[in-house]
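Hi there,

I know you've been waiting on this one. I reran it after we fixed the sequence typo, so this is the corrected version. Both the input and the resulting structure follow.
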Amino acid sequence: MICILEKSNMSLRKKYSMKLQPLYRAILFSVTLLAASGVDAADLLETFHAAQANDPLFAAARATQQAGREKLSQGRSLLLPSINLSANSTFNDVTTQYHPASPPIFIDGTKRYNSNGYGVSLVQPLFRQQNWLVYSESELQAEQAGLQLKIAEQDLIVRVAQAYFDVLIAQDTVQLVDTQKTAISEQLEQAKRNFEVGSATITDTLEAQARADLTGAQLIAAQNNLEIKRSALQQLINATPGSLAPLRKDLKLEAPQPADMAKWVDDAQLKNLQLAIAQANAAIADKEVARNRGGHYPTVDLVANYRQNNDNGGIFGVGSDTTNKNIGIQLNMPLFQGGIVNSRWREAEANRERARQELENARRNVAQQTRQAYLGVVSGIAQVHALQQALASGESLLDASKLGQEVGVRTNLDVLNARQQLFANRRDLYQAQYDYLLSQLRLKQAVGLLGEEDLSKVNQALQK
């Protein structure tokens, strides 16, 4: 019975191994290329520069900023004079018939003649309270456009770092799974030899075979995940990413300076860019209330006109040339417009209350994000240290389990479990290191200070 089971198991293993062997070789070859981070390996800073030139979201933010700057010119135009030129040329066909009682000098008949003219008019606002408020709003809108571009740049830094480290951890996972598969395969062969000489049971062989099969499936999943992460990075830089500079072995862990979370939160309340935009929105809402209240106010304009008219004929058969010049002050006083002014006023007050609540919500969110980013850095340091210790303990446990198996106090399953735990510890350590670096960037982003120099500092943690 045991022999039949062993033959069936060997047949399945051989069939499964023959199918997966070419795939394993292809995966291993791909990983080798990715891991070969020689002088041509792109680092984080180079990847960011490529994303700056190719990311469509950042390009859209630049265009939005350029459009926003035009708000200032549009608002200023409402305070400057407007000049209009008009011209006309008209053919006239006039038929006149006088009553019998008309004096004899008026003769019935048809007159055909051409008249033409041109004119220039100038209007200079003297008092238009709404226009001044629109201009002050346009200053805030132009400022917001600049802030939006800075936010987009900071967001691009974090997105590039996230995508870059996602590829690295995916590569690390593939390498770790492949290493684990090789070790388990060696353990499987050892279990087979021990079974053949009678020093182990078929259970040891089946346990090792199950782990080998599981590791093969994990390797396929890890390779698929690597391709997905590389595709996400490709979307940012619009090019197929080559080999990337890996993380240095001697990663330096630095606590936030100052080491005071409350100080970081206070700085974020003053410098966070999203909060600055919310404050500008609240200020614009205040001005909108005043602008709509100004719908009841009069307007005063300086008006000047120049008009030249030329007629080649008329109903009396005589042409004329006329020049008209005038200049004056024009007052307009709205009295009643169906209630629309009061309605817009109430609408603006409601929008002002909405902007104030959104500002308060932004303040709370910024404080919470800053605390999370600060704790991410601090706890990240502690987690890296703990996982480094766990990794050392896991290596000792694996060595002890192997020795225990040789002397008969540990089973093959104990060794497999120790190896699996060591693999998990190593991967968790890699992930914790990448998370620590990302938390540093997010902390600077929370206080509105994230820039390329911060990315360059993180880039120093990579090995060219």
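Quick highlight: The chain has ten helices and four strands.

Best,
R. S.
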